[in-house]
Each structure stands twice: as C-alpha cells, then as structure tokens.
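Re-run with default settings, no changes from the original entry. Doing this only to confirm the output is reproducible before filing.
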Amino acid sequence: MNEKIERRAADITAADEGNGNIVEGYAAVLEQPTVLYSIDGVDYREVIDKDAFNGADMADVVFKYNHSDNFFTLARTSNSTLTLTLDNYGLKIRADLADIATGRDLYALIQRKDITKMSFAFTVARQEYDTNTRTRRILQFEKIFDVSAVDMPAYDGTSISARDYFAEKIKAEKLEEEKRKLYIMTLL
C-alpha cells in the first residue's frame, strides 16, 4: 500500500435517475478549511486550493465504502459507472453503484442517512504550510485513487441527502400526467 495516499471527506446525495442505485455529490470541497486533528488544544487544519485538481491523474478512480479493499469496488471511472466533474464547489461525483448486495446495501444506508459523508484517497504533488495558522494548503493533487462513502469523515461540515428514486419517478410521472391533462383542457 502506498503510504503517501491520504483520504478526505465530503457530501453525497442519491440522484433521481437510473435504477435506484445512483448516488451523487461531492468527494472534495474547495477553499473550505477543516480541522484534521488537535494536539494539546492546538488545531491543525487543511484546505484544498481551488486549482488543486488541475492536472491530477483521475483516469481510473474507483468508488468504495470506507476506502476498504475488503468490499467490492462499486463503480469506476474507466467503465463510466463513476463520473467526476470539477466545479466551483469541489469534486462532484456521480456513481451508478453495482447492482449487487453491497451496492444495494450501501444505497439503502445512504438513503436512510446512516452513511452521511464521503471521502477521497489521493497523493499530493504540491502543498504549502502556514505555520502561523497551522494550515496545510494542498495546491495540486498528483493522483486520485478512490472516492468513498464513509462513516467517519475528515471533513465534518458535509452532509448527505438521499431521495427515493422510485418515489421521485412516480411523482415526476404524476406531474407530467397533470400537465398533459391541463394542456388537453386548455385545448377544449
């Protein structure tokens, strides 16, 4: 195992499309300092620079639970079951979790809000450290290895909201039916 690999957290949400095992959210947030740990009452922070993902190797990133190799990989970028996009907020993910027991179980835990955070595993290419504020600023990632739904994230300020895919689909279908009825009534 590469000892340089580090892991960080963010927020995920169940999406409103797919087979019901789609999740999406943010595996990393930009320019939002977090306290990684405290020693003798002194906080040590980290912040991800807004440009840190530029040039990072994200060719084959996998979606996992708690970064664990003891569980199946549930999605990956190389087969397009996991997509990663960067916006002003952070690294956004969308994963079509494998339709296996582990994928369905994890989706259910996200939906129930038992799993409320995300994390990601990475190596750093460039960083700086401010000794006055005890803050590490990650300027550039070298490689992103995984994004994971996690029990205990490094970034506590994140959250998850999951929607029941099938309930959302039924609601959308009913709304479309109502629109169609109104349209027909206006033609009469």
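The chain has two helices and eleven strands. Confidence is low (pLDDT under 50) at residues 14-18.
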